[in-house]
Amino acid sequence: MRRVGSAAAALLVVALTAAPAGAKTVVSAVDDAFEPESITVRAGEPIVWTMDGDNPHTVTADDGSFDSGTLDPGDTFDTTFADPGTYDYYCAFHGAAGGIGMSGTITVSGSSGGPGGGDTSGGGAGLAQTGPAATVVLAGLWSLVVGACARARARRLSARHR
């Protein structure tokens, strides 16, 4: 049990420290809306738009600084902002500059460097900000714990029947 506990602790440390390094913010383009509509990220943090609806969309900056072109369902578009500021965007098919129709706002804060900088989940701390890599690691940790408990129970049952 001691080896399993050490391995579980090591996996937990990896989950809580390494996973945030690859943080990115995902915006879903569904039919006629960006979800979430407004996000806040740190400078240098990638933003990925996923086309999750049935219609084609664009991700077009109000000021023309970026444009995804036409994106079909299942496509993705990503960009990164180096400078802090507020960036408005829209879908050329379903919205217009100035926050009309299908549109969104990106607020970019100072430099990336701290954990949890791009969390757009509406709050929370700790594991909610660790991302998909941590989920895999925590699933492995859970498997180790469950396996250790099952082996300990089997040993106790076996000892009773001797």
Show the helix and strand layout:
Blueprint: H1 2-17, E1 25-30, E2 33-35, E3 38-43, E4 46-51, E5 60-61, E6 76-80, E7 85-96, E8 100-111, H2 131-160
Give the C-alpha Rg: 22 Å
Distance between the termini: 22 Å
Helix/strand order, N-terminal first? HEEEEEEEEH
Question: What number of structural domains do the residues give?
Answer: 2
SSE class: alpha/beta
Any guess at the CATH architecture of the largest domain? Sandwich
How many helices? The count is 2
CATH homology superfamily of the largest domain: Cupredoxins -  blue copper proteins
- Low-pLDDT stretches are 6-20, 113-135
Average per-residue pLDDT, rounded, comes to 75
Shape: elongated
How many E strands? 8
Beta-strand content bin: 25-35%
**What is the CATH C-level name of the largest domain?**
Mainly Beta
